[in-house]
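Task card 7
Instruction: Convert sequence to structure tokens.
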Amino acid sequence: VQIVESGGGLVQPGGSLRLSCAASGFTFDSYPMGWYRQAPGKERELVALISSAGDMTNYPNSVKGRFTISRDNVKNTVPLQMNSLKPEDTAVYYCNALRFYRTDSPRLGSWGQGTQVTVSS
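Output:
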């Protein structure tokens, strides 16, 4: 499993960013995908989950209505559109494949380098 995240950066509160995840090394369209984040001093948390076919998504309340996950099963990519960003969204964002469509599912691969998102004025 190989995952490469990109698209992070510095954005002002209320702004938007679009993250991208490129995946390879496994049968991409057979597995759910998730975006996670880890803020300094905090545990890594799942912020968006999408089913293998892309017909189901799940978000925690903290990002619901602001983040949108999608997937392209031809290009093997998983974009995460983040709108109305808040300072508390500041974190390193990671993408990974999951074994099951469950928020507590074990991941398929190891963690990549992630992409830093900083929300600050």
